[in-house]
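Troubleshooting entry. The earlier prediction with copper (II) ion gave an output that would not parse, so I re-checked the input for stray whitespace and re-submitted. Clean input:
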Amino acid sequence: MLHVNRRDVLKMGGALGAASAATPVMVASASDADVSGLPRVKQELVAPPFVPAHEQVATDGPKIIEVELTATEDKREIDDDGTMLNTLSFNGSIPGPLMICHEGDYIELTLKNPESNVFEHNIDFHASTGALGGGALTLVSPGEQVKLRWKATKAGTYIYHCAPGGSMIPFHVVSGMNGAVMVLPRDGLKDRHGNPLRYDRAYYIGEQDFYVPRDADGNFIDYADHGEGMADMFDVMQTLTPTHVVLNGRVGALTGDNTLTANVGESVLFIHSQANRDSRPHLIGGHGDYVWEQGSFVDPPAEGLETWFIRGGSAGAALYTFLQSGVYVYLSHNLIEAVQLGCLATVVVEGEWDHDLMTQVQPPTMMTA
Ligand SMILES: [Cu+2]
C-alpha cells in the first residue's frame, strides 16, 4: 500500500498547498492494478531535439515503459555573449527528454534526486490522471529516488514539469525543468479522414523563457549558485518579460553546426512544448501540413497552417513534408523574441529545387526606370 497523507499533500506549500488542503487523503494501492502480465521495456531517453526509438504504430498490446530521469542542478551558458545561468533540468537537458508511448501503455518513471542537489524536485505529467499529475507522489529530497507508474489514457503531446510547491513551481520551470510526452494512438497518426499519417523523422523542440537579472550597468549577473540569484530572478520573473526566449536551452542550440536537417520529400514531425508562456511556431519557407495545435491526437489535425499557437503549459505537433531544398527557419513568430531573444532554429534541407514551386525569374539587376 502506498499512502500519501495530508501532511505530505500540504508540504506542496504556497498556492498549491491552499488548493490541496481541500483534497481528500489520497490512497493508492499498488495491488489494485494488476499489471504483472504486461511486458516491460526500457526506453532509452535521448537529449532533444532527438527523440527515443519508437514505433509509430503499436505492433502488439499495451506495455509498461520504464524511463528514468535525474534532477540536475547546474550552471550553463545560455547565449553567445557568455551569459551564465544556474539552471535546473531533467537529465541535464533543457527541455528534458521526450518520452514516447502509445495510448493504453503505462509509463513507469524512476525519478532520482542526487544527494549533491539542494532542492526538492518532483514531476507533474499533464498526460497523467490524478495526484497533481503525479506531483503529489513524486516529491523527492536530495539523496532520494521515487517510482511512479501512470496509464497513458489520452493520445496527444503533453508537457511534464517540476512542481515542488508554491513559488518553487515557476522558479523550477523557468530554470529549465520541463519536457514532454508523446502518447501516440495505437494505430498511429491520422488525417481528418482517418488516413494514416507517417513521419520520416521527428524533432522535439522545447521552448524556454529565462529571466536573468541585470546589474546597475545593464549587464547580466553571474550568480555563484541558485540560492544567491533567486530573489533577483523572482523580481525579473514578476515583470513577465523574459530576457531570453530560446529553443533547446540556449541561443543557437539548433542553428549552425546543430541545425536540424531533412531531405526533400521527407515528412518531419515537429513537437513543440512551452511550459510557461504562449508561443506561435512558424516555419519560414514551409507550412504546417497537418497541425495538432492543442496536442490532442483525438482531434483531427488542422491542415495547411502558416503559423500555429502553442498555449503556455502545453505541447503541440506539426507535420510537414519538405518540397524544396535550402535553409528554413523554424521560429516563434513574435519576431522580437525570435531574432533578439533567441527563439529560432534552422532546418537545412538537402535535395532538388522545384522551379515550378518557386523560381527567380530575374536576378537583382540595376533598375531601368
Ligand atoms: Cu525541480
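This one parsed fine. The two ends are 85 Å apart (CA to CA).
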